[in-house]
Design brief:
The protein has helices spanning 2-17, 24-29, 33-49, 59-63, 91-103, 117-120, 136-139, 181-185, 200-208, 219-228, 254-269, 272-281, and strands spanning 67-72, 75-76, 80-82, 88-89, 106-111, 127-128, 142-144, 149-151, 153-158, 173-177, 193-197, 214-218, 233-236, 243-245, 248-250. By secondary structure, the chain is α/β, with parallel strands linked by helices. It has two domains: 1-151 and 244-283, Periplasmic binding protein-like II (D-Maltodextrin-Binding Protein, domain 2, 3-Layer(aba) Sandwich), CATH 3.40.190; 153-236, D-Maltodextrin-Binding Protein, domain 2 (3-Layer(aba) Sandwich). The strands form five sheets. It has a five-stranded mixed beta sheet. The protein has a three-stranded parallel beta sheet with strand order 5-1-6. Strands 2-3-4 form a three-stranded antiparallel beta sheet, with helices on one face. The chain is elongated. Bound molecules: glutamine.
């Protein structure tokens, strides 16, 4: 994917500078996270004229080396966690490996911080799978595969709590994993104080020890954490907006997205997808 990434950056750097003279070294330097996010925003304007700011890379460019490097944050059971052998495991990891089998490539998993996944696509990683919700903001920087799972945010609270509805979250101290949809929701609750953590489990530990009033986290991890700390905490479903999980892919690489969607469809048709749901999620 290296060539593709440089091409992508070069295309973007050229479009960005508004002329054809961006030297290759500068284009290479544009691969750090902050520059990528700048480019992502600029693209919104460029899109209106033509598609030149988008990647010209194809699925072949990304897959040619026989390896698909996929980023995740292995802190989100049952979708991803660190297995007994120290390697990332979980529904998402197994699904991505099955997709790799269909595409005839090996999947290499990079465990990184959730908050840096989107910006790393096209440079450090080829794709990301991390129980990642499709949001408009992320769609400015990456393309998403078809959705593979419906999710919703749950609220974890102490066993003893006065929180009985979403309105009761006003004025509370609420924890979430940094850069997640749960984190972004906290500002909706008037006077609430947001506390952000790199790992959801660290927020849960602070809830258990009384330093937080609530934690907002996706349903399935919430169920896992509520069970793990069942003496101290419980989960609540306040019927927040449903969310869609999808695989994040390089922006504009339509053939890669089509290939991944094709593989997903095959895995659904041949029963592999449901087997993985049963194996890892169980409902
Ligand atoms: N679904 C949430 C999001 O996309 C949380 C994902 C996660 O923490 N891995 O923001």
């Amino acid at each position: 994917m290296k060539k593709a990434a440089v091409l992508l950056m070069l295309t973007m750097a050229v479009a960005f500078a508004g002329c054809g003279s961006a030297p290759a070294e500068d284009a290479g330097q544009a691969s750090d996270a902050s520059d990528v996010s700048d480019i992502g925003e600029a693209e919104v304007d460029l899109d209106e004229e033509e598609d030149t700011a988008e990647s010209t890379a194809s699925a072949g460019d990304v897959l040619a080396d026989g390896v698909l490097t996929v980023g995740t944050n292995a802190e989100f059971p049952p979708f991803e966690f660190v297995g007994d052998d120290g390697e990332p495991d979980g529904f998402d990891i197994a699904l991505m490996k099955a997709i790799g089998d269909k595409l005839g490539v090996e999947v290499e998993v990079e465990n990184m911080e959730f908050d840096s996944l989107v910006a790393s696509i096209g440079s450090k990683i080829d794709a990301a799978i991390a129980g990642m919700t499709v949001t408009e903001e992320r769609e400015r920087m990456v393309d998403f595969s078809d959705s593979y799972y419906k999710a919703v945010q749950y609220v974890l609270v102490p066993k003893e709590t006065e929180i009985a509805s979403a309105d009761d979250l006003a004025g509370k101290t609420i924890g979430a994993q940094l850069g997640t949809t749960g984190d972004y929701m906290i500002e909706d609750f008037e006077g609430a104080t947001a506390k952000q953590y790199n790992k959801a489990v660290d927020a849960v530990n602070d809830l258990v020890s009384g330093r937080l009033d609530a934690v907002i986290v996706d349903k399935n991890p919430a169920l896992v954490f509520a069970e793990k700390f069942s003496d101290e905490i419980q989960y609540m479903d306040f019927s927040f907006e449903p969310e869609d999980y999808a695989i994040a892919l390089p922006k504009g690489n339509e053939s890669l997205t089509a290939a991944v969607n094709g593989a997903l469809e095959e895995l659904k048709a041949d029963g592999t997808f449901d087997d993985l749901v049963n194996q890892y999620i169980g409902n």
